[in-house]
């Protein structure tokens, strides 16, 4: 019984926390590598290629017995997943170039709100306005978007910065006026990334329902990402010398991102989607704010601004309001399944039977 609980609850929780730390780490490394001259077009292509090669080594060890054939409709959806993933990375890393890992982590809390909006738009979610769970999700969505607007539009005074990065008030004012437009542009690009992310989750969840083989699906996703990103990024980055990677932090960043972020992170997220559902994967996003702020100050010498802190706090409140609504909804669903009460709405993005998937995943534990 304890072993089953460990497989169903402890292992997914630990894996998601570890992946959040990994994703923040690649943001910090990327920011440092761009200061050394790494082009983010080059970074995206090479990280997809490294991830594809790493997963290729795992394919001989994957059990393919009992899996359905790869139909054209399924391959098309995986290719679409590659297009969305590439577009999200393109927006995200360009936004990160203009802002900071802390801003990126703060705005990632928009994912549950965007997930709820998309679920309503595509009629995957029934809106019962008298239901407390629906009210919590609507309120949480509005609060999350308000917090995001504060993060993007209001920079504010410096709260904390590395001592060697502190500047005079006149210089700080001059930099603030010249970088405000980039700050807004970067935040907007990050918001686009986190709008595309739940779409990626929804399509990935539908793929896993039809073809429950995480390694194969993520390998094909990265292969499609490599095929899509290579010609586009070569056209956008015409400087041939930019494609030459030196054995320094740029090489470390690409290998780290390819193996741990684009590869392992996608694999763990796919496994989490298969096991727990789309919203569970996004629950751990607020944890990354603290990690990103700490690493950015220590390793990048970046300042922590008032607008970032205020917006992140508001975003977190909105985030957990959506999560509370989801938890309340699932509680009603369980009660309904046991014949005690009836839920007024369907669970958010539960387009497949998570219980059955859990049994399949952990029969070998």
What percentage of the residues does DSSP assign to strands (E)? under 5%
Strand order of the largest sheet: 1-2
Shape: globular
Report the structural category.
mainly alpha
Tell me about the largest β-sheet.
2 strands, antiparallel
Rg over alpha carbons: 21 Å
Average the pLDDT over all residues and give the rounded result.
Answer: 78
- Please report the number of helical segments: 13
Helix content: over 70%
Organism: Crotalaria pallida
Transmembrane segments: 38-62, 74-93, 105-124, 136-154, 183-203, 215-237, 249-267, 279-298, 304-323
Protein name: WAT1-related protein
InterPro entries: EamA_dom (IPR000620), EmrE-like (IPR037185), WAT1-related (IPR030184)
SSE blueprint and pairings:
Elements: H1 2-35, H2 40-56, H3 72-98, H4 101-107, H5 111-121, H6 132-153, E1 158-160, H7 169-210, H8 214-236, H9 249-276, H10 278-282, H11 287-300, E2 304-305, H12 306-337, H13 354-362
Antiparallel strand pairs: 1-2
């Amino acid at each position: 019984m304890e072993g089953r609980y460990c497989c169903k609850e402890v292992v997914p929780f630990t894996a998601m926390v570890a992946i959040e730390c990994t994703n923040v780490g690649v943001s910090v490394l990327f920011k440092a590598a761009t200061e050394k001259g790494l082009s983010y077009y080059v970074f995206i292509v090479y990280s997809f290629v490294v991830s594809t090669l790493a997963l290729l080594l795992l394919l001989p060890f994957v059990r393919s017995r009992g899996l359905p054939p790869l139909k054209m409709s399924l391959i098309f959806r995986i290719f679409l997943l590659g297009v969305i993933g590439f577009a999200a990375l393109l927006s995200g890393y360009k936004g990160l170039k203009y802002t900071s890992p802390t801003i990126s982590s703060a705005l990632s809390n928009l994912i549950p709100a965007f997930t709820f909006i998309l679920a309503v738009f595509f009629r995957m979610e029934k809106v019962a306005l008298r239901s407390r769970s629906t009210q919590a999700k609507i309120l949480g969505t509005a609060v999350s978007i308000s917090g995001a607007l504060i993060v993007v539009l209001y920079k504010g005074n410096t709260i904390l910065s590395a001592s060697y990065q502190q500047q005079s008030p006149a210089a700080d004012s001059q930099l603030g006026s010249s970088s405000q437009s980039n700050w807004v542009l970067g935040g907007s690009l990050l918001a686009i990334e986190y709008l595309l992310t739940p779409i990626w989750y929804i399509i990935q969840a539908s793929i896993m329902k039809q073809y429950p083989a995480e390694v194969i699906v993520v390998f094909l996703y990265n292969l499609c990402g490599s095929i899509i990103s290579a010609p586009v990024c070569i056209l956008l980055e015409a400087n041939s010398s930019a494609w030459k990677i030196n054995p320094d932090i740029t090489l470390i960043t690409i290998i780290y991102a390819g193996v741990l972020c684009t590869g392992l992170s996608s694999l763990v997220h796919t496994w989490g989607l298969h096991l727990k559902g789309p919203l569970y994967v996004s629950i751990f996003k607020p944890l990354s704010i603290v990690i990103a702020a700490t690493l950015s100050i220590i390793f990048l010498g970046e300042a922590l601004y008032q607008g970032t802190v205020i917006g992140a706090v508001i975003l977190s409140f909105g985030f957990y309001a959506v999560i509370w609504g989801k938890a309340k909804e699932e509680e009603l669903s369980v009660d309904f399944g046991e014949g005690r009460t009836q839920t007024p709405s369907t669970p958010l993005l539960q387009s497949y039977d998570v219980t059955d998937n859990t049994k399949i995943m952990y029969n070998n534990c």
